[in-house]
Amino acid sequence: MKVSMKDGSVQEMAFTDEIGQEAFRHTTSHILAQAVKRLYPDTKCAIGPAIKDGFYYDFEFSFPFTSENLADVEKEMRKIVKEALPLERSSVSREEALKLMEERNEPYKVELIEELPEGEEISLYRQGEFVDLCAGPHVSNTSVVKAFKLQSVAGAYWHGDEHNQMLTRIYGTSFPKAAELDEYLKRMEEAKKRDHRKLGKELGLFAIMEEGPGFPFFLPKGMVLKNLLIDYWRELHTREGYVEISTPIILSRHLWENSGHWDHYKDNMYTTVIDEEDYAVKPMNCPGGMLVYKVEPRSYKDLPMRVGELGLVHRHEKSGQLHGLMRVRCFTQDDAHIFMTEDQIQDEIKGVARLIDEVYSKFGFKYHVELSTRPEDSMGSDADWEMATDALRGALEDLGLDYVVNEGDGAFYGPKIDFHLEDSIGRTWQCGTIQLDFQMPQRFELEYTGADGEKHRPIMIHRVAFGSIERFIGILIEHYAGKFPTWLAPIQVKILPVSEKFADYAKEVSDSLKAAGIRVETDDRNEKLGYKIRSAQMEKVPYMLIVGEKEVEEKAVSVRKRDEGDIGSMKVEEFTAKVLEDK
Q: In the 8-state DSSP scheme, what is residue 411?
């Protein structure tokens, strides 16, 4: 695929290359804008970037544009592709750019030009009669874009500011080949079926109420799921030598100033006033962990000190960014902070990496790893950052883990390793992270007494495995399409008596299973058996037990397994053993 680079040159580049994908989809957004301007000439264009898996373009229409209009726009886009229009780049002065966009009645483009720093190069891309303000790159000709689909229409404030004009955003995607587009659309259709918001409601797991947007309510079955994850977390961390603490949700402004969060994260924090002093609801657990470390003197013999916390944190997210359990305003972070000496760094990082690998393997996830380096908005010396980054890199290489470097995406206090897991339909989610921090122990003046009897500064790791337990539950719902493995299912067994006269035997079976620690419900409604089976299937219960006259006589149960159907009759003891072994 030919891509016109910023300097106007043309290079061959595969679509699999990130720059190639961006150029291809960015060009598709220009084709979209050209089609819109042809069909609705008085429309004003804003911005149209490439995004992950697609592109969008924001417009100000003079009429209510809806998804019903997309077919007409797609039809016009196909005409533009057939016209095989070359994309021609030109560099112009600020005055020339302003004059052109003013003549074309494009006020958003005018504003963008005026916002550019003095001396910034201004480039335009032309395809036929359409000209757009753009830095590029683009493919060389519209004919390259053969497979595309406009997917949805949404509202978007100009510059993301709710005080500005509400624009209409058209989302789409594009691929070099129709087969790739078809495969992507099938994946997206499957993703809709797996939407955790839809399944969470159907399965009775959680709810988002009008009274608390972004603050999820966990329902009884959802709490079973959440507690199973927490129980697994505690079992794993106890085995690995962690101790668990709990720190307050509200702490003084002074603490957050000391940690650096007040300067770097204030806009995302909820604040209050107590006794005429400023306090903040914690967005992170780590400052409280620093205070716990300082409760008593520490010796080198106490290190490494592995401290875990399932802390409820609150962060102010914009309402337009909220999304079920994936983006919320309060969540449980499975934090841990490891305090250590310099010579313990490598072993502790490798231990955390192995733990995270074990967690993801438990749920059947594949993953890839990124090493994120120092951001512009950071604190600490160059020497500390270099040492921390080298330590993370060295641990990854010792473990033989492939990784890519994500320049400038570290935390403000230190570099980090991010684990991006892949779900059952190929989507990636950033969950686990290991952050090495030389800064916070200094800011909180943490100390330990060394073997030499002198005071030394510990180094610390911030790390999560699940990340947000709420978000991890959302990912699991979509990963399993609501069909949780038996050990994780809120209800593992549903007992379906054929009629009311078998209720006593159903209770006997239920009591036996519950005594063995199996989560069981009985559907004792006065309904036909077929109806009860369909209901249990909708609830995605791993096992259904049908009990009738034959089962009562044989002291057995007729077993149906999710996705397999009837697997035969078993004694209750035999079935109990099967469920307890079924992972």
A: B
- Among 462, 494, 532, 540, the one annotated catalytic: 462
Report residue 74: phi and psi, to 5°.
Answer: -60, -40
Is position 350 annotated as part of the catalytic site? no
What angle do the packed helices 345-362 and 220-239 form, to 10 degrees?
140
- The amino acid sitting at 551 is E
Residue 423 appears among annotated catalytic residues: no
Predicted confidence at residue 426, as pLDDT, reads 83
User: Quick check: is 104 catalytic?
Assistant: no
Count of CA atoms in the C-beta half-sphere (13 A) of 57: 28
Number of Cβ within a 10 Å radius of residue 290? 21
Contact 184, 173 (CB under 8 A): yes
Which of 286, 423, 431, 479 is an active site residue?
A: 286
Residues 6+ positions from 98 with CB-CB distance below 8 Å? 110, 113, 114
pLDDT of residue 248: 97
Instruction: Please enumerate in sequence order all residues whose Cβ is within 8 A of that of 368, keeping only pairs 6 or more positions apart, or say none.
Output: 402, 403, 404, 419, 420, 422, 428
What's the CA dihedral at 97, 98, 103, 106 to 10 degrees?
100
Rounded-to-10 torsion of CA 110, 111, 116, 117: 110
Based on the residue annotation, tell me whether 315 is a catalytic residue of this protein.
Answer: yes
462 is catalytic: yes
What are the structure tokens assigned to 402, written together?
């492939």
Catalytic option among 333, 435, 439, 492: 333
Contact criterion met (CB below 8 Å) for 536 and 548: no
User: Which tens digits make up the pLDDT trace of 167-204?
Assistant: 999 999 999 889 999 999 998 889 889 999 999 999 99
Six-digit token pair at 121? Answer: 């190069």
- Contact assessment for residue 336 and residue 237, using Cβ atoms and an 8 Å cutoff: yes
Positions of the chain with pLDDT under 50: 3, 5-12
Task: From the candidates 138, 226, 416, 540, give the one annotated as an active-site residue.
Answer: 416
Q: Is 333 part of the annotated catalytic residue set? A: yes
pTM: 0.83
Q: Considering only CA atoms, which of 39, 28, 22 is closest in space to residue 146?
A: 28
Q: Residue 383 has what pLDDT?
A: 84
Instruction: Return all residues near 578 (Cβ < 8 A) that are at least 6 apart.
Output: 570
DSSP reduced 3-state for 100: helix
Residue among 346, 351, 414, 405 at smallest CA distance from 386: 414
Q: Which of 337, 494, 540, 560 is catalytic?
A: 337
Of the residues 58, 132, 334, 335, only one is catalytic, namely: 335
Asked if 330 is an active-site residue, the reply is no
Inter-residue contact 156 to 58 (CB < 8 Å):
yes
415: preceding bond cis by omega (within 30 degrees): no
Return the closest-CA partner of residue 442 out of 429, 426, 431, 458. 458
